[in-house]
Amino acid sequence: MSIDIKSLLYPLLGLFFFCLLWAYTASQIDTSLGTFPGPAQVYAQAAVLVEEHQVEKQKAEAFYQRQEVRNAKKLEKKPDAKIKIRKYTGKETFFDQVLTSLKTVMFGFLIASLIAIPIGIVCGLSDGVYKAINPLIQIFKPVSPLAWLPLITMVVSAVYVSEDPWFEKAFLNSAFTVALCCLWPTLINTAVGVANVDKDLLNVSRVIKLPALMHVRKIILPASIPMIFTGLRLSLATGWMVLIAAEMLSQNPGLGKFVWDEFQNGSSDSLSRIMVAVVVIGLLGFALDRLILLVQRYVSWDKLAVLR
Question: Would you place residue 81 in the very low, low, confident or very high pLDDT band (cuts 50, 70, 90)?
Answer without folding.
Answer: confident
